[in-house]
Every structure is written in structure tokens, then in C-alpha cells.
Amino acid sequence: MAVRSAWLSPDGQTREDTRVTQIGAVAPVSDIKGRSGVLPGSENGLYRVTGLWLNGTTGGMTATVGVGRAVVQTSVARGAYPVAVTEPVPLTFDAGDSQFGRVDLVVLRIYDDDYDGSGRTEAVVEIVKGAAAATPVAPAAPDASLVLFTVAVAKNAGAGSGGIDWDSARVDLRPTTVPLGGILPTRSDDTAPGGYPGHYRDVNDTLQRWSSTAWVSYPKGVGGLVPAGVLTTGGYVGQYRDSTLGQLQRWNGSAWQPAVPGPVFAQSLDAGTTASTTYTAALASTAVTALTLNFTAPPSGAVIISLGARMSSGGETAQAHMSPQVTLGSTVIWAADDERAASGSGAVSKSTSTQLRLASLTAGSTYTVTAMHRSSNATFTCAFDTIFLRVDPIA
To answer: Which domain of life is it from (predicted)?
Structure first.
């Protein structure tokens, strides 16, 4: 017998049946059901999986499914069927339709009369023929079966007319399964979720861990530095990666942020004026509505804010004040104040700047600094030019 399944034959299970179908506990998909699939492996470890490979005959309509082992998981009541194909199984595809192409399935199927009333109790490899159509699609897989391949059969395809072009017609859909706790080697288009948090799989030479909601890549061991362009979502808070721009970044649980926040800077070279005696971000006679700067609070929660401008007050009896306003969202953390202002006076412009320390920030939060301006005397119009803001993190 070429296709064997343990605990299926009504005539008794032979010792040989038992030996060749031993596969161990399979990768779970629930608390009681396992993952259907072909057991991986190949001679000398060259390939992910070679079991149950479909090898077509050039120019013909025949093919063989090679040896291999698999598991076909069914309902909870029926359980999982271990199967071993110990000799190649020949298959013959029907000729193509005269008008349209079709898509056939090659499946590993379980017949169990106790459950399906088929009058058969065996495991087989068979073809499920699709319907010919202008846009053909694969038929539905039968119950208690494992889809191995789809095969596109062109219209008029036949043994005497070139047969099936196996290289283009054959699509490998063999899923894999491994014993409980094993790392699952699978295809990049495999969208099946993991069975439990901590379940691992290997995809395109990348190790991934199931987080309970997604497969998270571990291109390097835990604690290792992820190469640029490999990982879009971090696997754990505190993971580091090299960005595509060469910046070291840290995953904070929801976003990648600079691992070592650097200084941030903003400037405006467009001069503006104000006669307002209360602080305002808006200046007249300039295209810059307001000069602002966003920064991320470092782990220390402290930064140095630098600001300045070339300013004039229109006379010695008035002062031009420039002060920072710091907000977190819509909440004002620091209001503009003369105590924190860079100030200048006189009709002739002078470059003036100051530096301030701001602490007690929430590490990782994004704050906004806005340059605010005012005149100490409403009868004098103050001018501000070459305005700048800079924020430096404090370690």
C-alpha cells in the first residue's frame, strides 16, 4: 500500500503502519486541534520540504506525487490523521476544455466511512477537477483533505498537444507542520496565525515569534541589533534597530524613536513685527505664521531650550521680548514669561539669545516649543529677525 494512515483501517493496524506514520504531537492551532501539513525535511537538509512533491511528465498529462509524511487535521471529534506516502503515487489529469482553461487541485484526502458515509476507509492522493471558465478558479477542497498543489490546465491541453506546462502551471501550496514546540519552516505567503504566544516559525531565513496577535520578526537574537530595512514593528519594548538612514532607534511599544535623541532646531529668516503687549506667536509682515519645534523628551526628562533673534524695540524706552511656550498636546507646560525671555531694546537691531533648562518631562512624549513675542510698550513696534529655536536633551 502506497498511502498509509494510522488508526484508520477497519481490518487492523499493522506494525508497519504504526512505524511509518509516527510523527509525534503536531503544532497546535487550538487547545485540542493541530496544524495540518506536510512534515518538512530533505536529503542533506538542502530544502525546506520535499515530501509529497508533484513531479509532472514533460509534454504530457501525467504526474506523480512523491513520498512523504503529513497530518490531516479534521474536526475535534475525528481528530488528526497521520499519513505516510511510502511509494510515488501516479496521477492523470483530464484533457483541457475546448474553450476555456481550468484549475485542478491535488490533495491528500482522508475517507472515513464512519464519518462521511463514503463506503471507503483509506487515505489517498487524488485530483479534484476544477470547472472550465473564462477566468478559472480552483475548486473548493473536499472535507478532511490537505491541499498540496494547484495545476492550471490550459484549453485544448492534452497528451498529443503539448500537455501541461508544469513549470508555470504548478503552484506549490504544501503547508508544513512540526512537532509541538518545533520551529515551523513555512512559506512567506502563509497567513495562518500561531498556536500560542511563543510559537516560532522560520520564513525566508527570518525567525519569527507569535505575539498573540501577529508574527514578530527576530532577525537577530533577543537583545541583538536589528539590521536596517528588516523590521517594521518591534517585538518588545527596548528592542533596537538601525534605521535606513543610519540612525539607531529604540522600539517604545508603539513606534521607533531615536535611541539617543539629538538636538532639534528650527529657524525663520523672515523678519516680522508686533506691537502687542501680550505674548503672541504671530508676527506681522512675515510669511511665517508661527515658529514651532517638536521634540521628544529624553529618558532623563530634562532638556535645554535655546532661543534668540536679531531684535529691535524702536526706542530705548521699550523692550522686545521673545520667550518659549512649551505644550504637550493642548496642555501648556511652560507659558511665555519675561523671566524666560531673550530681551533687547533700542532702535538698532541687536542679536540676543538665552538658554533655559526644562525638567520633569515625561520621557518618550512629544512636546512642542513655540516662539512667543511681545513689546513692553504698545506705542513701539518691535521687530524680530533671524529667529531660532533649539532643544538639546540632557543625559
So the answer is: Bacteria
